[in-house]
Amino acid sequence: MRLLVVAGGLAWAAGAWAADFPVGVHVASPELCEAARAGGLQAIFEDGYTVLTAAGFEGIEYHCDFVQVLAGKRTPGFVVTALCEEPGFAFPDLLAIVPRGEGELEVTSALDAAGGEPSANSGTYHLCEGVALP
């Protein structure tokens, strides 16, 4: 049996919230990172982009809170349950977050399995050193 621990609004299975869970601010491209360093995160938020942090996704009028994070046993990565919200609409998402390279994360949303447009949460995210959430 795994113990479920809740702190700071996040829940995780004891032992699964590892030190190697991605920290820092991650953005969709190295170019967005440069834009964030030059003009701040507000500049990329105003262009409709979101950022990924250990707490979830952040953007203007859109966010997803990570409510449960479980580490893979054989696959180096995490399964994350998220509660997402945009104006007038809240929905759950289930994500796979897998490190793919130095400072690079692949995020895949279960919403992609429904077909149609890919989820806004899916994609490759790059660590943006020197940028922090306000």
How is this structure best described in words?
This protein has helices at residues 30-39, 41-46, and strands at 4-7, 10-13, 26-27, 51-53, 56-59, 62-71, 78-86, 89-101, 104-109, 123-127. It contains two helices and ten strands. Mean pLDDT is 84; it is low at 1-19. Strands 1, 2, 3, 4, 5, 6, 7, 8, 9 and 10 form a ten-stranded mixed β-sheet that branches. The chain is 12% helix and 45% strand. The chain is mainly beta. β8 and β9 form a beta hairpin.
Taking all Cα atoms into account, the compactness measure Rg is 15 Å
**Distance, first to last CA:** 38 Å
Sequence of secondary-structure elements: EEEHHEEEEEEE
Q: Give the number of helices.
A: 2
Strand percentage: 35-45%
The percentage helix is: 10-25%
Name the poorly predicted regions.
1-19
- The residue-averaged pLDDT reads 84
Number of DSSP E strands: 10
Largest sheet: 10 strands, mixed
In short:
The protein has 134 residues and is mostly beta strands. Helix content is 12%, strand content 45%.
Give the topology, please.
Blueprint: E1 4-7, E2 10-13, E3 26-27, H1 30-39, H2 41-46, E4 51-53, E5 56-59, E6 62-71, E7 78-86, E8 89-101, E9 104-109, E10 123-127
Parallel strand pairs: 2-6
Antiparallel strand pairs: 1-2, 3-10, 4-5, 5-6, 6-7, 7-8, 8-9, 9-10
